Amino acid sequence: MSAVKHLDTMEFEQLPLVADLPVPMGPAAPLPVAPLGAAAIAQPAGTTAKQAVAPKVAAPKIHLDLPDGVPAYWAEACRQLMRRDRVLKRLIPQLGSQALQPCGQEQAFATLARSIIGQQISAKSAKTLWNKFARLPAAMQPEQVLRLKVDDMRGAGLSARKVDYLVDLALHFTEHRLHMDEWAQMSDEVIIAELMSIRGLSRWTAENFLIYCLGRPNVLPLDDAGLIQGISLNHFSGDPVSRSDAREVAEAWKPWCTVATWYIWRSLEAQPVA
């Protein structure tokens, strides 16, 4: 019979204890780290885990083919808004070839006059009425409008109230009640208050003037039905939206509320008519 004992028959005391084994001395070697993901692909010998981390690839920039005449801030505003708002991230590239082109301060009187004429009527009727009125003065200047006869203005289709509003508007310009030379340094709210001193001009009209004429970057016209509808359709799947809801959505838009509002408006043009 063999003299070799199997392990399970050996005396417990005969097994070497871990504490009795020799312990190697010297600096501890770092434990190997297995690379994960892309770093696990074949690497040159001697490459450390830190060196093997794959570099982050920047997302490709979306090119916006903007037309001439857009505000200088428009492109940067679009880039920031696409990072902050999931809806604008989709809308802006779709409408990237379109952008606001403000008419400029030199068109201030004509812009406000047209706003007065277009009040409380359809866009088609407003265009027809404006074309009739615009043929009356030699030039669309406040001095020329003040020379018009009331009967001629009424004959073009203007109501008595709109005639009064246009006269008051012209007087604000000719009597220098508006501080146009200081508008560039004035805040939006101060300009809005100044414009609302003109008869027939509401806050909505003043805010639209800041957008379409002066090109102010951070105007949020919460009284605008189109903006509320656009936020409802794009951000709330068509559910009703309050001014508070709209203001909360627009927190992510600052300081580019004008740009966001403009693209929300444009998105409605693609909506089917109910």
UniProtKB/TrEMBL annotation:
Belongs to the alkylbase DNA glycosidase AlkA family. SMART domains: ENDO3c (SM00478). Keywords: DNA damage, DNA repair, Glycosidase, Hydrolase. Its EC number is 3.2.2.21. GO terms for biological process: base-excision repair, AP site formation; DNA alkylation repair. The keyword DNA repair applies. It catalyses: Hydrolysis of alkylated DNA, releasing 3-methyladenine, 3-methylguanine, 7-methylguanine and 7-methyladenine. It is an enzyme of class 3 (hydrolase). GO terms for molecular function: alkylated DNA binding; DNA-3-methyladenine glycosylase activity; DNA-7-methylguanine glycosylase activity. The gene is alkA_1. Residues 117-269 form the HhH-GPD domain. GO terms for cellular component: cytoplasm; protein-DNA complex. This is DNA-3-methyladenine glycosylase II. Pfam families: HhH-GPD (PF00730).
